[in-house]
Every structure is written in structure tokens, then in C-alpha cells.
Amino acid sequence: MKCVNPLLLAGLLATATSVQANDLNQVIDKSSAINESAQKTQTKIDSIADSMQSRLQKFKTLNKEIDGLAVYNAQLDKQISNQLDEMNAINASMDQVSVIERQITPLMLRMITGLEQFVALDIPFLPKERQARIASIKEMMERADVTSSEKFRRVLEAYQVEVDYGRTIEAYTALLDIDGKEREVDFLRIGRMELLYVTRDGSLAGSWNQESKKFVALDDTSISQINKGLRIARKQLAPDMLTLPVHASE
């Protein structure tokens, strides 16, 4: 049996150990490179996943917005349809208004003529005021800057004033021709039933006779009642019974 040189054996072992160490270092280095590459790859995957999740969330949000817009557009379509129907109705109404306006003007003119005739035939109280009102309405009818509705309102207002005269009592002062002499008198109007006067000095009194269309003199016994009526009309005395002559129409 041959003897192995211990030095040679140690050298061989050292060489083998060195070779194994080098191989192990290479394996470790490659493993570290693989791990580092795997980490980079995972980081990219995580980044892509986050990006995909964000895009998915945006996609869902956009879908919700699209659904909302679809509902909103459908509602707008209904509103537009209703507005078109309303516009058609307004256009039809405007056409009718034009027809009515053409018809209402002759009606107002007839109403004014009727009112003028009525005032002329009525007892002659406040003649200047009533005639001025009618003249103002006639002048207004010729103006282009006044709407038909305003003209009609004014005509109805004039009629209402005349209606109110029939249920009120009124006192006013004016001039009256008595026996060819103009005198200042106090008039007492009781609805449309009676129009009386008394001179300011209290010496003469009279009442309007609708049949003869003139004032007729009253006796002195009526003067106190007329003065009482004047005070009632001026709210200087509480309402009370009056004894006055009435010219009843046949």
C-alpha cells in the first residue's frame, strides 16, 4: 500500500474547496440577481395592477355618469316636447287674441256711445266731470301706446263709476241758472232718484223733474230737509230719515 503525501492531499482538498466556494458564490450571485429581477418584475406587476384597478374604477364611474346622462337626456327630451306643445298652444292663443282684439274694439266703441247716451239722458248731476271722463276715454281709444286690455279696463271702470252713483248720496257745490241768473248752489244727489239744490243763502230750493227735464222750485218747508241731507252726505250728521219730494216717473 502506497503512502499519500499529506501535503499533496491538503493541496487537493484546498483546491476542491476553492472550486466549490467559487461555484457557490456564483450560485448566490445568480440567485440574488434572480431575486432582484423578480422584485422588479413584481413591482411592475403591482404597478400594472394598480393602474388597471384605477382604470377599472374610472370605467365604472364613467358608466355611471353615462347612465345618469341618459336619464337626464330623456328628461330633457320630455321637457322639450312639452315646451313645443306649449309653444304651439301659445301661438294658437295669440291667433285667437288677434281675433278677439279685432272684435273687442268695436264693442268698446259701442259701450262708450251707450255710456254717453246714458249720461245725456240721466239726471244732470256732475255734468262736467262725467263728460270729461267720457271725453278722456274717447281720446284714449285713439292712442296706439295703450293696450286693448287697458282700454277695456278703463271703459269698465267708467261704467262702474256710473253704477256706484245709483247707490250713493253726494253733496257738491256748483253754479246754476235760476230765473236767468247764475247762482252758486249746493246740490244734493240721492242715488239717481233725486237731485235737489238750495242756494247758499238758503232762500231758494228746487229739484230736478226728469219728465220736464228742468228744475222746479220747492217751497220753503223742503229747505231744512235738503240742508239736513247735505250734512248727512258730507258726513257731518249721522244717517237719518229725510222727508223730500220725489218726482216719480209714469
TrEMBL record:
InterPro entries registered for this protein in UniProt: SNARE, UCP028069
Recorded GO CC terms: membrane
Record keywords: Signal
Signal peptide interval: 1-21
GO aspect biological process, one term: vesicle-mediated transport
Protein's recorded name: DUF3450 domain-containing protein
Organism: Pseudoalteromonas amylolytica
Biological classification of the source: Bacteria, Pseudomonadati, Pseudomonadota, Gammaproteobacteria, Alteromonadales
